[in-house]
């Protein structure tokens, strides 16, 4: 699960909104919303994040936090260690394995 997915699920459940209800309201498939919450999809688009913010009626700091989490929640990250030390390459590979 990504930080964005975790936060989105918590906000949705706190408001007693089903995935299907929310997906219909913001114009995405319920399966996509589920995958987004579980971290099986990459970071959502800026427009989708804005639709979510509007639908959940969140403002200010909470909206800013959700936008930040969306930017930081890509489930697969690539790290280029070419030109770095062997220790850096080893550390990157250990992180990838775990």
Instruction: Please work out how many helical segments DSSP would assign.
Output: 6
Termini separation: 14 Å
CATH class: Mainly Alpha
Share of helix among residues?
Answer: 55-70%
Overall pLDDT score? 90
How big is the Rg? 16 Å
CATH topology value: 434 Repressor (Amino-terminal Domain)
Which term fits the overall shape? elongated
Uncertain regions: pLDDT < 50 for 5+ in a row?
none
What is the strand tally? 0
What portion of the residues fall into strands of 2 or more residues?
A: under 5%
How many strands, what sense, and barrel or not for the largest sheet?
A: none
Could you please describe the fold and organization of this structure?
The protein has 98 residues and is an all-alpha fold. The chain is 65% helix and 0% strand. The chain is built from 6 helices and no strands. It is elongated.
Could you give a short description of this structure?
The protein is mainly alpha-helical and 98 residues long. The chain is built from 6 helices and no strands.
Which helices and strands appear, and what pairs or packs with what?
Layout: H1 3-14, H2 19-26, H3 30-38, H4 46-56, H5 60-71, H6 86-97
Helix pairs in contact: 1-5, 2-3, 4-5
Any key phrases for this structure?
98 residues, mainly alpha, 434 Repressor (Amino-terminal Domain), 6 helices
């Amino acid at each position: 699960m990504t930080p964005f997915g975790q936060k989105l699920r918590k906000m949705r459940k706190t408001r007693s909104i089903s995935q299907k209800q929310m997906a219909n309201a913001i114009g995405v498939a319920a399966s996509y919303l589920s995958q987004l919450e579980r971290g099986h999809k990459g970071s959502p688009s800026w427009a989708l994040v804005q639709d979510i913010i509007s639908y959940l009626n969140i403002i200010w700091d909470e909206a800013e936090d959700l936008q930040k989490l969306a930017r930081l929640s890509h489930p697969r990250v690539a790290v280029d260690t070419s030109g770095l030390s062997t220790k850096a390459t080893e550390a990157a590979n250990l992180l990838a394995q775990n």
